[in-house]
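Regression test case RT-17, inverse folding.

Input:
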């Protein structure tokens, strides 16, 4: 995949489940499309989740992102996520344990997930400083958390303008818990 370079966002997709519905997926892909439209230098590489139905998943991405932009502005990547992560600018995920690998690769990660209207067992989430439900990676500040387009845009702007600082912040937080 020569497509993935320092102008590429790696998106680690997620299979549908109790906290990530088909509607959530459509919202997520639409937000990613908005990022590409407002940042013409950026490209998107999508790594489908191993449990994700690739046929249906690819159809939804293609419908929203545009078949005419496939292999120009966005692709589906078959690379190992660690290899793709090593070559990309930064990573966006719904929720993934691969965040730890990306921190070790010195790649900033944005977790794009809104749990506020989800019926989740209390033991499975935390409440952050803004009274939002979050999973542990966001709670421990191992990712930059975004629940909507505005937060996503703000984090991308921060990462693009303060790249080294953004990497350092996640690495420092990682060190608090894992070293």
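Golden output:
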């Amino acid at each position: 995949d020569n497509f993935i370079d320092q102008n590429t966002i790696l998106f680690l997709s997620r299979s549908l489940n109790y906290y990530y519905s088909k509607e959530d997926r459509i919202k997520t892909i639409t937000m990613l499309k908005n990022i590409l439209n407002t940042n013409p230098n950026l490209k998107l590489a999508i790594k489908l989740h191993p449990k994700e139905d690739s046929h249906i998943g690819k159809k939804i991405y293609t419908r929203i992102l545009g078949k005419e932009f496939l292999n120009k502005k966005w692709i589906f990547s078959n690379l190992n996520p660690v290899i793709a992560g090593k070559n990309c600018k930064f990573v966006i995920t719904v929720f993934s344990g691969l965040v730890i690998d990306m921190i070790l690769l010195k790649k900033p990660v944005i977790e794009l997930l809104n749990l506020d209207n989800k019926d989740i067992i209390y033991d499975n989430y935390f409440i952050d400083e803004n009274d939002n439900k979050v999973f542990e990676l966001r709670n421990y500040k191992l990712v930059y958390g975004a629940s909507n387009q505005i937060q996503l845009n703000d984090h991308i702007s921060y990462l693009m303008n303060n790249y080294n600082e953004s990497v350092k912040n996640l690495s420092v937080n990682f060190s608090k818990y894992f070293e």
